[in-house]
TrEMBL record, chain A:
GO cellular component, one term: plasma membrane
Residue ranges annotated for the ABC transmembrane type-1 domain, each copy included: 94-283
Keywords: Cell membrane, Membrane, Transmembrane, Transmembrane helix, Transport
Record family assignment: Belongs to the binding-protein-dependent transport system permease family. OppBC subfamily.
Lineage of producing organism: Bacteria, Bacillati, Bacillota, Clostridia, Eubacteriales
Protein name stated in the entry: Oligopeptide transport system permease protein
Pfam family, one: BPD_transp_1
UniProtKB/TrEMBL annotation, chain B:
Segments passing through the bilayer: none
Pfam families: ABC_tran, oligo_HPY
InterPro entries on file: AAA+_ATPase, ABC_Ni/Peptide_Import, ABC_transporter-like_ATP-bd, ABC_transporter-like_CS, Oligopep_ABC_C, P-loop_NTPase
One GO-annotated biological process of the protein: peptide transport
Domain of life: Bacteria
The entry's keywords: ATP-binding, Cell membrane, Membrane, Nucleotide-binding, Transport
UniProt name for this protein: Oligopeptide transport system ATP-binding protein
Family note: Belongs to the ABC transporter superfamily.
Keyword Membrane (UniProt): yes
Organism expressing this protein natively: Desulfoscipio geothermicus DSM 3669
């Protein structure tokens, strides 16, 4: 009896080792750059969540007498032209950048995944119509298209999210379509049909879980694109409107002081660079960890 | 006819490609009684798999389409059913086992969940109840410690085990008809024998009819009651298995049987049917087998033979067979 119990425990342990999630984590944790990025991004998320408690000053209302100060003991990253603490503004800016990035990717990913899987699964005319539409959108430079959408929708952060998700959506649709095309040829899809599943169940229950890896990777990389585009729209004065703190907007309003107060541009720029780099490195790490060809 | 379960009459499934129309299944007729095992034999591309997909109404469309014929299953016309009605048939009353056990299970789900799926779908079972039933099905297919194995992912199982899971999946709703598309081709010989034995055992228990699609005549001899031989989308011969092996009437069947290596003869080279399967886009006008047939006469190349009854239970489509004239 005791032996049996022991054997059970051992199989349970083997089960754990074989679990795909475990295997994935083991592979991801080997990648130092990805882990550093993950820690950085988790830290950034915490900072964004608790911004009001962490930021030393009010990000909106500055003290005019202290404007354009270089980094010093009181203002670690200096102050801007209106005497606002740049560190505080960057901390609050993280909220907007992360939220816009995640939200834009979430919308683009969901819509793109649905369109791409329908196109890939049904093929034929439906595929042709959906994908030609995506091709048309891809043929414009995405920022230009985003600006055009902003012109129609009007300024503001919500519209920036919508514009960015519309222009990035075709990429997700293409990736999902390609993966669905190859996965749907598997016999288990035929088997799912043969036990009487409806099309929707086959697509969402049997095919999509098998194409998650490229979607997750592209989504992670996509967050950095979305953050960059938000910053670009902000820089151009179309995205987040003053006085709200957003990294791109800070860059835009700081560029007039590039020569006498370069820290106005440096620090938001560094924040954008680090965050975008972290998402890219994490995305690369995820790709390596999820790629079945690299699995032993 | 008593106990008739499935009757396929003049089934035509064609594929409409850019280059032309491929008559993958071209006027196939056969029937199946309750509890019987019918083997459908033929080379790759002879239309045997498309015939089974046609019965399930799962022909990939486009480019494929069932263009004619009738499929009667337990008195119901399957071709007249709506897609929704067909979904109730699939997996519930007719189910399928596929050739590749390595790829016919979804890698992201535990095998128990996959067996439970059709129970939830067709028998309106609760998930928990269905999982318990899945354990029972695994036990029935002879998988050791099924209550643990039910939580395995497909990659944790061997090919033979996965095929047992497939059988459990196919039979959990106690279907009246099981279509097994080359169920043992991807397995090694000892496992093959086990799987065939298991299928026969479960067939006896559940009184299921089986259509066994194969190109392996050894498998046919072992498990089937009757056999249908297909060539280029047509049935060329139908006979009870013992008679087919004893006295094959069609030259193609003879060729197939001669191609089996024998233990009691020592030959340097195995027998081979000359030539290759003709291009389905440009089938010869007469008998499709005539270009490869060692016995073909002039009129074989001009006149297409018809499937004709030559003895009780024996049908053949050949101009050379007595009574088999067009």
């Amino acid at each position: 009896m005791a032996e049996l119990a022991k054997a059970t425990v051992e199989t349970a342990e083997i089960d754990e080792l074989h679990s795909p999630l475990r295997e994935f984590w083991r592979r991801l944790s080997k990648n130092k750059l990805a882990m550093v990025s993950l820690v950085f991004l988790l830290g950034l998320t915490l900072v964004a969540l608790f911004a009001p408690y962490i930021a030393p000053y009010d990000p909106i209302n500055g003290i005019m007498e202290e404007s354009l100060q270089a980094p010093n003991a009181k203002h670690l990253l200096g102050t801007d032209e209106l005497g606002r603490d740049i560190l505080s503004r960057i901390i609050f800016g993280a909220r907007i950048s992360l939220r816009v990035g995640l939200l834009a990717v979430a919308i683009a990913l969901s819509v793109g995944t649905v369109l791409g899987s329908i196109a890939g699964y049904y093929g034929g005319k439906i595929d042709l119509i959906i994908m030609r539409f995506m091709d048309i959108m891809l043929s414009f430079p995405s920022l230009l298209l985003a600006i055009a959408f902003m012109a129609v929708l009007g300024r503001g952060v919500e519209n920036a999210v919508i514009a960015i998700s519309i222009v990035t959506m075709p990429e997700y649709a293409r990736i999902v379509r390609g993966s669905v095309l190859s996965v749907k040829e598997n016999e288990y899809v035929q088997a799912a049909r043969a036990i009487g599943n409806r099309d929707a169940a086959i697509i969402f229950k049997h095919i999509l879980p098998n194409v998650m890896a490229p979607i997750i990777v592209r989504g992670t990389l996509g967050i950095s694109t979305a953050i960059l585009e938000t910053a670009a729209l902000g820089f151009l004065g179309l995205g987040v409107q003053p006085p709200d703190a957003e990294w791109g907007t800070m860059l835009g309003s700081g560029r007039g002081y590039l020569f006498n107060a370069p820290h106005l541009v440096y620090f938001p720029g560094i924040a954008i660079t680090l965050t975008v780099m972290a998402f890219n490195l994490l995305g690369d790490g995820l790709r390596d960890a999820l790629d079945p060809r690299l699995r032993q | 006819m008593d106990n008739l379960l499935l009757n396929v009459e003049d089934l035509k499934t064609h594929f409409f490609l850019d280059d032309g129309v491929v008559p993958a299944v071209d006027g196939v007729s056969f029937h199946l009684r309750k509890g019987e095992t019918l083997a459908v034999v033929g080379e790759s591309g002879s239309g045997k798999s498309i015939t089974s997909l046609s019965i399930m109404r799962l022909v990939p469309a486009p480019p494929g389409r069932i263009v004619g014929g009738r499929i009667t299953f337990a008195g119901e016309d399957l071709l007249a059913k709506s897609e929704k009605e067909m979904r109730d048939v699939r997996g519930n009353r007719i189910s399928m086992i596929f050739q590749e056990p390595m790829t016919s299970l979804n890698p992201v789900y535990r095998v128990g969940d996959q067996i439970a799926e059709s129970l939830v779908l067709h028998k309106r079972m609760k998930k928990k109840e269905a999982l318990e039933q899945a354990v029972e099905m695994l036990r029935l297919t002879g998988i050791p410690s099924p209550e643990k194995r039910v939580r395995d992912f497909p990659h944790q199982m061997s090919g033979g085990m996965r095929q047992r899971v497939m059988i459990a999946m196919a039979l959990c709703c106690q279907p009246e008809l099981l279509i097994a598309d080359e169920p043992t081709t991807a397995l090694d010989v000892t496992i093959q024998a086990q799987i065939l034995e298991l299928m026969q055992e479960l067939q006896r228990q559940m009184n299921t009819s089986i259509i066994l699609i194969t190109h392996d005549l050894a498998v046919v001899a072992e498990v089937a009651d009757r056999a249908v031989v297909m060539y280029c989308g047509k049935v060329v011969e139908e006979a009870p298995v013992a008679e087919l092996f004893e006295n094959p009437l069609h030259p193609y069947t003879r060729g197939l049987l001669n191609s089996i290596p024998r233990l009691d003869e020592n030959v340097d080279r195995l027998f081979m049917i000359d030539g290759v399967v003709p291009n389905m886009l440009r089938l010869p006008p007469g008998c499709a087998f005539a270009p490869r047939c060692p016995e073909a006469r002039e009129h074989c190349r001009e006149t297409a033979p018809r499937l004709t009854r030559v003895a009780p239970g024996r049908l053949v489509s050949c101009l050379l067979v007595e009574g088999g004239a067009a």
